[in-house]
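Side project, low priority. Logging it here so it doesn't get lost.
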Amino acid sequence: MTTIVTLKDINKLFLKGQIQTHALKDIKIEINEGEFVSISGPSGCGKSTLLSLLGLLDAPTSGTYQLTDINVESLSVDQRSKIRNQYIGYVFQSFNLIDHLTVFENVALPLEHRSEKSSDIKQAVEETLAIVDMQSHIHHKPNQLSGGQQQRVAIARALVGNPKILLVDEPTGNLDSRNGDLVMQELIKLNKQGVTIVMVTHDERYSRMASRQIKIFDGEVLVEHQEAVV
């Protein structure tokens, strides 16, 4: 089994004025290819901070982070951006779609940043939108879509570059229960097709759908469960 992520003794401290917050404390986690891992815990426990570190949107204060065979914690900002584009798909809770771009243009962005050929981009975008059943909305703008549809477009944008790992931050947080269930079924389908997923969620029902559950409390890994209850 191929290990994609190895975190060792990861700490993250935030300093605001004279107040120091220890957001993550000696985190040790391995994530293997093909897993669906949920990270859950109460508000402010450090789970979103952990996902930001995994997504190279932030850097740890101390500890080591290996992504496949790359030690990433000491990379420059430009190097981190390049690695993120090549290896990581990130789905934000607020979708982060660009309002004035079409569905096609939003999904194409990661490949345009790689300077891919336009014909290759077109093929990859159309194929990825078909995976999330959004190909019929290819010319729509985000404000013409429901919340669930926008989330599926955000998932397509994260997938289009064929990342090693898909990071998903509270995918149902801005959705009603029906659309939340549909998005979760989409993630489960993608995982069954081989996509490695790490999902932060506050919803215990959804966290139990993952193949491995990591619970965090006060910045520490409290417990892990292997069995999924779908």
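Brief comment: Strands lie at 3-16, 19-32, 36-40, 62-67, 70-71, 88-91, 165-169, 197-200, 212-217, 220-225.
Revisit when time allows.
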